[in-house]
Amino acid sequence: MSAEVVSLHPRASEPSLAPMLALTAAGMNSVNTVILDRMQSQIPLIPALAGHLISGGGKRMRPMLTIAGAELCGYHGARHHKLAAAVEFIHTATLLHDDVVDGSDLRRGKATANMVFGNPASVLVGDFLFSRAFELMVEDGSLRVLKILSHASAVIAEGEVDQLTAQRHIETSEERYLSIIGAKTAALFAAATRIAAVVAERSEAEERALEDYGRNLGIAFQLVDDAIDYDSEAAESGKGKGDDFRDGKMTLPVILAYARGDAVERRFWQDAIAGFANSDDDLAHAVELIHRHDTVNATRERARHFVQRAIGAIAGFPAGEARAAMAEAAEFAVARRY
Predict the structure, then answer these.
(1) What's the predicted TM-score (pTM) here?
(2) Domains in the chain, ordered, with CATH?
(3) Which of 96, 137, 141, 305 is most buried, judged by most C-beta within 10 A?
(4) In the chain, at which residue ranges do the beta strands (DSSP E only) sit?
């Protein structure tokens, strides 16, 4: 079963996550029960801090992909509930650590855990959640699942370190940027979807197909996140507009604007990414340049390409509610404004 690039289906209305939410509602209720149970501890700070982030209104796309993938594979057991919870714990742990590294003060419209509880507590509770994730994997008993999720955890960490080393480097290429987001974001999407085929005991080809769906969706998801940073107000996106700009992150809208700019514009970007021009006026100028060169739309167009690949990857599965919901969720990933 090989992935193919397909055209997005025209819709009478904007794509929605609603079919995916409906498809996975029962499974996600079980996943949420596991999450609430396993984030508990005799140390009160741990559930308080973990709950601050976990209850923060995220879409929970990654565990949802595990549940949806199981539906697509016709699996009717319960193993994937704990594994989906493990996926969410891995993701939450990385968010806690990322916010400390970035010095972030806002996530999903709320103060970050590190702002409320402090950096040391956020790092340590992140470690706790990683440990809980691996407990859940071991309880499942599948070495194959353990290998997939543990490898993804290592790749995510590598991607985060690679992003850190690329920070404030104006010459970061689009190729390296895609490599970074393929590791730090798409690796967990890919693993979350693939393990559904493993628990369903489907073929290697079907495992790969679901992995390809998740990886391409994850890349598209991050591309749109990076576009939103220069395209939405903080109230809509749930984080401060221009966070990536002030942090000197070389995301695709900036990479393209730098490549398309004249000498004066390129000098501005060199100063901005180096940290010498990051005032509100500088941010406004950066946004103006990005709009001048239409790099937000160009970034979304790149994302559409990966979404087409994601939809193509699951084209070999039987048509039905699960495949349609997963395809529309992929289209939603590009269309969203938050």
Answers:
(1) 0.92
(2) 18-226+317-332 (1.10.600.10)
(3) 96
(4) 106-107, 110-111
